[in-house]
Structure formats: C-alpha cells, structure tokens
Amino acid sequence: MSTSRMRTEIGEQPAALRRTIDGLLPRLSDIGRLARDTRQVLFIARGSSDNAAVYGRYLVESHTGRLATLAAPSIATTYKRDLDLSGVLAVAISQSGKTEEIVQTLDWAARCGARTVAVTNGAGSPLAEAAEVALITEAGEELAVPATKTYTTQLAALAVLGLGLGADVDAEELRGVPDEVARVIEATEASAALPEIVAALARVPGAVVSGRGIAFGTALELALKIKEACYLHAMGLSYADLLHGPIAVVDAQTPALLVAADSGPTLPGTVALAERVRGAGAQAFGIGGGAGLAGASTAALAGPDLPEWVAPLGLIVPGQILVENLARALGLDPDVPRGLNKVTQTD
C-alpha cells in the first residue's frame, strides 16, 4: 500500500516545527509591545484551530496569569452584537487564513477595541493582513485534508505567544520540541501497541477520548481526527466532565483513549481514570502519561519527553499515526475524508 499524504505530512512535522519556532521566537518583543496594555486573551477559531486555541487558553491562564477565553464567532457574524473589548488581545487562528467567519470576527474584535494577532500558515492571507501582528507558521503546503503539521505548528506559534506574554517557562524547552517529535514518530511506528490498539478500535463503533488541562486540546483534536478520517463516533471530553455522567457510555464496545503529558498536575487523575475504566470491564488505551498511565492502561503509546507546557506539540503525534493506521485498516483514504474540504466556510 502506498504511503498516504497524511503519513508523509506527519513525518514533515519536525522540520516544520523547527522552521516555525526559529522564525517566531524573534517576534517575542512584538507580542509583548502589542499586549502591554491588555489584560485578557480572546481566541477566535474553528475546527482543529479551535482545539489549538484550547491549548492556548490553558497555557495562557496557567503560565501567564491572564484570563483567556474562546470566542463565539456568531456573536460577531450572526448576532452582530458589539462588545466592549478594550484591554483584550484577540488571537485569531486559521491554517489557511481564508475562512471568512474568522477574518470577520477578528475585524469585529478590532472595531470593539481589541488588539489583534493572527496565527496562520497563510502568509499574505486576509487574516494575516487584518491583524496587527501576524505569527506565520512554516508548515509548508498541506495536501491531506486532516490537519497534522499545520496543527502542531499552530501550537508552536501559541507557545511563542505565551512566551511573549511573559509565561513563567524556559524558552529553550521549546527549541527541543522538533527533535523529540522526530523521536516520537519513530518510536510510535515501532511500538507493538500500535497494531493492538488499531485492531481494537477497528472492532468498535466509537470511543471516548479524554484528557485534562493543557492536554485537553489534544483529546479534542484526537477525537476530531477519529471522526474525520475514520468515521467513528468519538467523544472528546475533559476527564472531569467524563466523571460527571458520560462515564456511563464507556463499556466493552466503547473504549477510552486517555491522553496526558508525562508530568504535571493532571497526570494522577488520568491514571486513576484508566484504572476505573478497566475496573468497569472496558479497555483503556493510553497516549503519553509515562509509565504510570502505561501501567494502568490496556495498551499504551509513549508520548514525548517534554515539559507539560510544550507536551501537546508532541502528544498529538502518536494519535495522528494511530488515526492514519486505523483509517487504512478500515479501508478508508485518510487524505480525503468524505464531505470535507481543506478550507471550510461557515455562515
């Protein structure tokens, strides 16, 4: 079987991340100047970019001390209601920079008093032109419909945004991401757990995907990829929300995929959830979480050896490889999911 475009682009991520990180780290002072008179961050996005925004929100709140929220673009484009956005840094995220709803919402935010940043792979795109500061990712052209390298380079840009906002982390840890992603790709493809998890998921109609905190966006993105490329029902939930009721759907026909960084305050809860899932007679498949999550899971794929604040840049990669393998095992083409286009326009 020939290599899919999706798999090729997964393999291009280390180089894309290195270009993006090297290109954007010199922009820290630009971000700092723009954000100097702001106190809150508003993320504007849809689809995979919205999942990247979830990472950005947790990073900003946990490491810069600023309040961060996700925008509802319909307030701007459908309800057409102006808000007081003075003191707000509006960050719009779009891989193409051409989604009209996102461009319109960023323009609305500026009219309402916000300072504006764009994160996009589209240099010269309408979104990049609309923003005061444009953080251009260096993913190169992405041909497969499911976002892989454009998603991880968005995360890199948001990590740089966090640094520009004064995050209490070490910028040098971001520079180590590309090499670690390359290692994770190689390790995942050599893992005996990969075919085991693929075979298990190919036999069920759906799964629950869960994480918390800085890893929550990764859980949402993995669930989206399973739905997009494999046509399975996949519910992305914080494990806190999962425990409030939806845990009832986890059974022999609905396994749980649990994602976590190898360290951090949400890891113990993720391990405990894996133990609870297995205790209920269901399968729990871990992604990341170190030896603790691997030991509590039915089977597990190792994640990146990275600090929690940058772990999502590598944590999604085993999930991407899992989805690409699962799609092919189901007889599907992961490059061109039905009903989807590379640029999605919404009303």
Identify the overall geometry. globular
Proportion of helical residues? 40-55%
Number of domains: 2
Mean pLDDT score? 94
Largest sheet: spatial strand order: 2-1-3-4-5
**How far is it from the N-terminal to the C-terminal residue, by CA?**
39 Å
In DSSP terms (H or I, runs of 4 or more residues), the helix count works out at 16
- Sheet bearing the most strands, described? 5 strands, parallel
* Unreliable parts: none
C-alpha-based Rg, rounded:
19 Å
CATH third-level topology of the largest domain: Rossmann fold
Proportion in β-strands: 5-15%
Q: Would you report the number of β strands?
A: 10
| CATH class annotation of the largest domain | Alpha Beta
N-to-C series of helices and strands? HHHEHEHEHEHEHHHHEHEHEHEHEH
Structural class: alpha/beta
Quick one: CATH superfamily of the largest domain?
Glucose-6-phosphate isomerase like protein, domain 1
Report on the architecture of this protein.
By secondary structure, this protein is α/β, with parallel strands linked by helices. It folds into two domains: 171 residues, Rossmann fold (3-Layer(aba) Sandwich); 145 residues, Rossmann fold (3-Layer(aba) Sandwich). It is built from 16 helices and ten strands. The strands form two sheets. The chain has a five-stranded parallel β-sheet with strand order 2-1-3-4-5, sandwiched between helices. The protein has a five-stranded parallel β-sheet with strand order 7-6-8-9-10, with helices on both faces. Helix 2 runs antiparallel to helix 10 and helix 11 crosses helix 16. It is globular and about 55 Å long. The termini are far apart. Its EC number is 2.6.1.16. InterPro entries: GlmS/AgaS_SIS, GlmS/FrlB_SIS, SIS_dom, SIS_dom_sf. GO terms for molecular function: carbohydrate derivative binding; glutamine-fructose-6-phosphate transaminase (isomerizing) activity.
